[in-house]
Amino acid sequence: MDWSQSLRLIAPEETLSIASLILLLVAAWGGDKAAKLISVLAVAALVAAGVLVAPALCGGAMGTETFAFYGQFKADAFASYAKVLIYISAAVSLVVAPKFFDRFNAMRAEYPVLVLLAAIGMGMMVSATNLITLYIGLEMNSLAAYVLAAFLRTDGRSAEAGLKYFVLGALASGILLYGMSLTYGFAGTTSFDGISASMAHGLSNGALFGLVFVFAGLAFKISAVPFHMWTPDVYEGAPTPVTTLFATAPKVAAMALTMRVAIEAFGDQAHAWQQIIVFAALASIVVGALGAIRQSNIKRLMAYSSINNVGFMLVGLAVATPQGISAMLFYLAIYVAMSVGGFAMILMLTDEHGNQVEDLSKMAGLSRTRPGLALGLAMIMFSLAGIPPMFGFWGKFLVFKAAVDGGMIALAALGFAASVIGAFYYLKVVKVMYFDEPADVVKGESDIWHKLILIGSCVVISPLGFFLTKWLGHLADTAAAALFTAL
Amino acid sequence: MIQTIAFYLFAALTIASAAATILSRNPVHAVLFLILAFFNAAGLMVLTGAEFIAMLLVIVYVGAVAVLFLFVVMMLDIDFAELRAGFVKNFPLGLLVAVVLLAEMVLGIGAYKSGGLVLGTADGTNAAPAGTTNIEAIGALMYSRYLFLFEAAGLILLVAMIGAIVLTHRQRGDTRGQKISKQIARRPDEATVNVKPEVGKGVQL
């Protein structure tokens, strides 16, 4: 193994690590007054890391030359695709933060540093080709996430969210570790290709146990049913910029990690995990849709919406073909655009004192008082529901097409039927905004950054987004091909 | 010969002190017996040639965990007699749990003996170089093959530290911090004043 090559392959992680350490020192001496400067520098570091990742993505890097550190880390096109999405989401969660925290006088200098460290962890997760790298990346991300969830420590709900996330996350990590130790015991190695080789001739009972526990632990991290209970509470309680992060970056990372574990480590045993994934997919779609119907808090509604969307993405994984993975990656990109826009939108819903308005009933008649906001939210809701002119439709279409092509017609049909249930609550939001008597609560001034992010995401999810189809589809295909490269 | 004697000595003391841990009435004594058990277990580890684990046992369990226990036991006023009060009432439940555990052990050992479990063979990438001690072998792996993960684990500890500070540290108005420069700049002639208070008037400071 060549050290210099390894170090070159982890350049994005190095950039972010060095940036986070320097910014931590700036935070230590500059104090909370320097928080905005640190945020700007952190966004710059994320952009730099994104630029470093781009060549591997556009060049379709795959195969042995992408391995770093004795095959513990892989900087291929697949990892790069996920990393770009992660860095974009992390940068957005930094950009939207100052306005929100300023009102509580809680814009602290550690926030950008923790987001950067979480981004390093997420980058390790998507690049992991070894169980140890997987776990270390996951813990780095989770530990930073627990702190971020409880960031508004004077707020009871935020503290509750942090504690709940921590306890349940620790439980999930325990389940995952147990599964990993069983897998290691029965495979004799922690590297994914080694596990794959040792299981090429069938799966022993013990290894099957390991596989089930690993997938249960990962299902918690992507908040797939039946491991989704924490999601609504954490999303509601955590400060909204942090929820923006939770709904996007860690979800992309955990999703990509699940794909890599499923395809690279247990690829020959697809029949063993397919039933788990099929169940999780259908259950997530149904529970996400049914659970959202009764919600009156928009953040909880978005939490159930994310559970629902995870279900649709898992349909692509259940097929276990390059087409399915490519569809999933495409869906992930659209999902990030929709979530980012949705939460920027939620951040803009403030009353005249600048307090956040999260109650659905207070958004009644928004179309008459704030037509621009209402239009943006309506577009995001239509896109989340997958109604055709919007770009969200294309993601769902690709996933179901992959399922049909892969011979899982029953799964596609059931998922499609359940997506109709999901459409109900998305449309309910639109109905409340457009047809109810104005409650006239949302009067607050919006931050320019929130507006820009909302406009950007609305452009992507609008019918204009279809111009991206070819380019994004090509990138997703390259990334999926990198995942399936036989070594 | 000497090894056999040492083994029986350590093993007997481990069992005896473990029994004393759960039998002693005084919780402080229980923790002290636990520490004794850890030391003897460390001795057993040295006998098997795993001196690194022996060291970890002493440093982590005795140095950190047991001392923490000791602090908790001494700080908190826990009435252990009261905790044991429901013993007779909960005895059937305890017995059930014990039977389940026993059945699990029997089944597990049975499955292993009958060859139902085929463990994987290690791929050899982490094999210790010949003729090195445990600690050298672990160090050689950790600082070469697993260097990346070792450094990443360091970052995790940094996250934990930042997190603890973010969640607990706050500026409080009512604390008086030490101002070292002011202390050093102090002169004897400024520090003391001679006053001659008039009788019956008290002292003005």
Automatic annotation (TrEMBL), chain A:
Keywords: Cell membrane, Membrane, NAD, Quinone, Translocase, Transmembrane, Transmembrane helix, Transport, Ubiquinone
Keyword DNA repair listed: no
EC number: 7.1.1.-
Topology of this chain in the membrane: Multi-pass membrane protein
Pfam families assigned: Proton_antipo_M
Compartment(s) where it occurs, according to its Swiss-Prot or TrEMBL record: Cell membrane; Endomembrane system; Membrane
Protein family (similarity comment): Belongs to the complex I subunit 2 family.
Function text: NDH-1 shuttles electrons from NADH, via FMN and iron-sulfur (Fe-S) centers, to quinones in the respiratory chain. The immediate electron acceptor for the enzyme in this species is believed to be ubiquinone. Couples the redox reaction to proton translocation (for every two electrons transferred, four hydrogen ions are translocated across the cytoplasmic membrane), and thus conserves the redox energy in a proton gradient.
Quaternary assembly: NDH-1 is composed of 14 different subunits. Subunits NuoA, H, J, K, L, M, N constitute the membrane sector of the complex.
Descriptive protein name: NADH-quinone oxidoreductase subunit N
Source organism of this protein record: Novosphingobium clariflavum
TrEMBL record, chain B:
Family: Belongs to the complex I subunit 6 family.
Keywords per UniProt: Cell membrane, Membrane, NAD, Oxidoreductase, Quinone, Transmembrane, Transmembrane helix
InterPro entries: NADH_UbQ/plastoQ_OxRdtase_su6 (IPR001457), Nuo/plastoQ_OxRdtase_6_NuoJ (IPR042106)
Organism lineage string: Bacteria, Pseudomonadati, Pseudomonadota, Alphaproteobacteria, Sphingomonadales
Catalytic activity: a quinone + NADH + 5 H(+)(in) = a quinol + NAD(+) + 4 H(+)(out)
Membrane topology: Multi-pass membrane protein
EC number: 7.1.1.-
Protein name per Swiss-Prot or TrEMBL: NADH-quinone oxidoreductase subunit J
Described function: NDH-1 shuttles electrons from NADH, via FMN and iron-sulfur (Fe-S) centers, to quinones in the respiratory chain. Couples the redox reaction to proton translocation (for every two electrons transferred, four hydrogen ions are translocated across the cytoplasmic membrane), and thus conserves the redox energy in a proton gradient.
Keyword Transmembrane recorded: yes
A family per Pfam: Oxidored_q3
